[in-house]
Write a structure and sequence with these properties.
The chain has 271 residues and is an all-alpha fold. The protein has eleven helices and no strands. The longest helix has 30 residues.
Length: 271
């Protein structure tokens, strides 16, 4: 977490002073987020809150973040598919629901605040992470039936809508849902990589249509996130599954708590 905090401090500290130095701080933040995206599927959720702390408009932060997930998702899909870690049938149904949900979410995000949704997402993510830690510590593993295609499409639509509204990219919602259902950790992260692509593409179309995409910021984020994703995916396939699951769970609890507290603070100060 130390590199992430340093990147945030750099991005915030350079505020309105030289753009190149400010962009270097933002690129560092994107690199750290990319490593987390590639390794545990959770990392893009950090971009929007950290960018807003650095003085970036929330709508611009969401638009640029969603654009960068096109590349992190494509790279993640290629690397996870090479290891056979993506269930393509499930990915297709999830993507079919996620694409229209993401477009709708991007259009809605341009005209509304997302603090209430962020608080709900944060609370859900914390609870899911706690459940994973509890299941792992007790050693209780339950077999679950395979999800029906239409149910997967419904999950995809909800994840796409929520992701585009908040700029989280999809994995922060999908990974806990799948792991909560009993899916293996690598399969969950692999599907989260695949679902990023349709979500990011459709959300970017919606952001372009609503004028919420800043190309310079989007380009800087894309480079950092793409490089980090390559490194993160290699880490994910090099560590034991149990350790990786614990990493995911801890990340969920920490990130969910930050989201819930920050969105609650924003709502309180806005009243």
């Amino acid at each position: 977490m130390v590199p992430l905090l340093l990147a945030i401090r750099m991005a915030a500290a350079f505020g309105p002073v030289p753009v190149t130095r400010r962009m270097l701080g933002i690129a560092g933040l994107a690199l750290v987020s990319g490593v987390l995206i590639g390794c545990i599927g959770i990392g893009g959720v950090l971009l929007v809150p950290c960018l807003t702390l650095a003085g970036i408009d929330v709508h611009a932060a969401i638009g640029a973040s969603m654009f960068s997930y096109i590349f992190s998702g494509a790279i993640g899909v290629a690397l996870y598919a090479r290891h056979g870690s993506i269930a393509w049938g499930s990915a297709a149904w999830l993507g079919a629901g996620a694409a229209p949900g993401a477009f709708l979410g991007a259009v809605l995000a341009a005209h509304m605040g997302a603090d209430v949704l962020l608080m709900l997402v944060g609370a859900t993510v914390v609870f899911a992470g706690w459940r994973i830690l509890r299941r792992r510590s007790s050693g209780a593993e339950r077999e679950r039936d395979a999800l029906e295609p239409m149910f997967l499409a419904g999950i995809g639509a909800a994840v796409g809508l929520g992701s585009a509204l908040t700029g989280t990219g999809g994995p922060v919602l999908l990974v806990p849902l799948l792991m909560w259902w009993g899916a293996p950790v690598l399969a969950s992260v692999g599907l989260s990589q695949a679902i990023q692509v349709p979500i990011a593409l459709m959300a970017t179309l919606g952001n372009v249509w609503s004028g919420s995409l800043e190309l310079l910021l989007a380009g800087v984020l894309s480079v950092g996130v793409a490089i980090g994703t390559v490194a993160g995916a290699r880490i994910a396939h090099a560590v034991p599954a149990a350790y990786l699951a614990r990493m995911v769970a801890i990340a969920l609890v920490l990130v969910g708590a930050v989201l819930a507290v920050r969105s609650g603070h924003n709502m309180a100060t806005g009243w």
